Amino acid sequence: xxxxxxxxxxxxxxxxxxxxxxxxxxxxxxxxxxxxxxxxxxxxxxxxxxxxxxxxxxxxxxxxxxxxxxxxxxxxxxxxxxxxxxxxxxxxxxxxxxxxxxxxxxxxxxxxxxxxxxxxxxxxxxxxxxxxxxxxxxxxxxxxxxxxxxxxxxxxxxxxxxxxxxxxxxxxxxxxxxxxxxxxxxxxxxxxxxxxxxxxxxxxxxxxxxxxxxxxxxxxxxxxxxxxxxxxxxxxxxxxxxxxxxxxxxxxxxxxxxxxxxxxxxxxxxxxxxxxxxxxxxxxxxxxxxxxxxxxxxxxxxxxxxxxxxxxxxxxxxxxxxxxxxxxxxxxxxxxxxxxxxxxxxxxxxxxxxxxxxxxxxxxxxxxxxxxxxxxxxxxxxxxxxx
Length: 387
What we know:
Layout: H1 25-39, H2 42-45, E1 54-56, E2 62-64, H3 81-90, H4 111-117, H5 122-136, E3 139-147, E4 153-159, E5 167-170, E6 175-178, E7 186-193, E8 198-201, E9 221-223, H6 232-238, H7 254-276, H8 288-304, H9 310-315, H10 318-321, E10 324-334, H11 338-347, E11 359-369, E12 373-385
Antiparallel strand pairs: 1-2, 3-4, 3-7, 4-5, 5-6, 7-8, 8-9, 10-12, 11-12
């Protein structure tokens, strides 16, 4: 059973207060003092650098953001950083997931809620990747800032303990950038947080490649919890995690994956035939095995974090290329619904192909990941005779 939401849920009409009313007076005092001091600084006063201490939970409670960070065990078959990145990236992105009808706000869900719903926005993806890295033993933080495409962008910082070097990951897009890489789309870093503290970026620079990432430097970063502001037991209680150490994972049945492959291939085949109207549409079914081999290779490469080499992929088509000119498009989408897949195929304009003894080739490869997350590969090609 596949359920989608169309249209996408509307944007929130209100957000959790920057410093909400809390029953815990000491935490409230620390938060207000911190926010007041940071907001007095020009970059934060102008709104150029985002700052957020609390998020609204699915239960409608204002929750310290640190409580969402906790080492969490990934599915057993996913160990490498590239594999974790692949899995998190494949979880569908849905802006401003609203889990409470009464509170129309951007809700931060726990990992279990995120995986159960099968979709989430930037913070859910970043938190899940961060928590997986922490489980590996890596030093990891969630970075909140702005980018050219996102008013509030969530990245994950991973680095070796105490090292100045590190890597920024965009969990939704599955991209990574060394801290010194000026191509990173993160344009204004506002804050960093982990399971125990929040650091506001108070240095003049806010572009990752030009900043100091030494969180112990008080001239560059200001901590929420400083020595003497509260005793260790209080801070431990305030930062107690809302996450499970091991999320609940479910396995997709092989039959479900095979059914989805057949469903997608049948729908694409019918759609191309309909789009061609009265023009003949002949299918070369002999190429399905070759194209399937290529798609299997592409998923393996994506999971291993390597770029597929065009020459190696073209070698699979060597025998076919002796007889046909081949124009083909391997496509990869996260499964949400058939409409998204059809739109991706339509965008290639492959259905408008023409030529001598024109034939089409099509194959679909679906890879199932835990919690009904599916990577859907489609290879559709137009073949014209060279003879």
